Amino acid sequence: MCQLLGMNSHLPASLTVSFSGFTQRGGCTDHHADGWGIAFFESEGDQPGRRARQFMDKQSAATSPIAQMLKTYPIKSHNVIAHVRKATIGAVTLENCHPFTRELWGRYWVFAHNGDLKNYQPNLHSHFHPVGSTDSERAFCWLLQELNKAHASMPSVQEMTHTLAELVPQISCYGTFNFLLSNGEALWAHATTKLQYVLRQPPFPEVQMRDEDVAVDLAKLNSPEDRQVIITTEPLTVNEPWVAMQNGELRAFVDGQSAVVKHCPPTHWVNPPVDAAAPAAA
């Protein structure tokens, strides 16, 4: 399985601390060594941007020179999605690295997936087609295709979440479908098995990183106006109140907080995940 990392922030914020710990799971503290990627939306002043900048490498995140450079790169964004890959479907190639990016309604969309969708071969008949060979990219293309059918132009976050809640069960019935999706305005997170989030706001604590022997005083890195939600497969710190999302839970995060919540478990399983009935780990 792969691992996911996302951030949605009230003000443009850096993901350096979380990303540094997260990359250790790409071959150092965990076995997700088959490539990695990160995409973030360039902020326009204090406003979320539409343009996504992307970095990826088929080399492990723990050893990639690009990942090492990004640990000190001043990424400032409202929405970020990162991924470390353990290949199960699709070869270890650059085109199979997440996150994937496409344009729809004049905005860039970024998507990353954790899990396996067995025998998932959707009917793709519009201009959204995969470049690589992963089930993840096929699912992303199908989602955008169906969203494009459902809306003539960019819907509101609430309308978008409602449509996603209708579409997601048609994919998640094929297996494990933990994913992060963003258009620069909001960040959507869906859990089948494991996905966690934490709200960071004043007073910011000192946190102990889980994958590095490092303590970080978040108060020194954030202003009193800052607020962020961090979403990840497994908690990045050992002393924060991480919240486990439940099977079928879909959340839209806007402005550094949870904005819309839907519950959309599949009505039937074509290829159920092994732990589909189990609650997400705390």
Which CATH first-tier class would you pick? Alpha Beta
What are the low-pLDDT stretches, counting only 5+ consecutive residues below 50?
277-282
- Outline the biggest β-sheet: 7 strands, antiparallel
Distance between the termini: 18 Å
Shape: globular
CATH superfamily: Aminohydrolase, N-terminal nucleophile (Ntn) domain
- Give the strand line-up of the largest sheet: 3-2-4-1-12-9-13
Structural class: alpha+beta
Number of strand segments: 15
Count of alpha/pi helices: 5
Query: Percent range for helical residues?
Result: 10-25%
Order of helices and strands: EHEEHEEEHHHEEEEEEEEE
Rounded Rg = 17 Å
Please, what is the oligomeric state?
A: single chain
SS strand fraction:
25-35%
- The CATH architecture term is 4-Layer Sandwich
Mean pLDDT: 87
Written overview of the protein:
With 282 residues, the chain is an alpha+beta fold. It has a single domain (3-263), classed as Aminohydrolase, N-terminal nucleophile (Ntn) domain (Glutamine Phosphoribosylpyrophosphate, subunit 1, domain 1, 4-Layer Sandwich), CATH 3.60.20.10. The protein is built from five helices and 15 strands. The chain has helices at 16-23, 65-70, 135-150, 157-167, 169-172, and strands at 3-13, 36-41, 52-57, 77-84, 100-104, 107-114, 178-182, 187-190, 196-200, 206-208, 215-217, 228-232, 243-244, 249-254, 257-263. The strands form three sheets. The protein has a seven-stranded antiparallel β-sheet, covered by helices on one side. Helix 3 (135-150) packs across helix 4 (157-167). The longest helix is centred in the middle third of the chain and has 16 residues, at 135-150. It is globular and about 50 Å long.
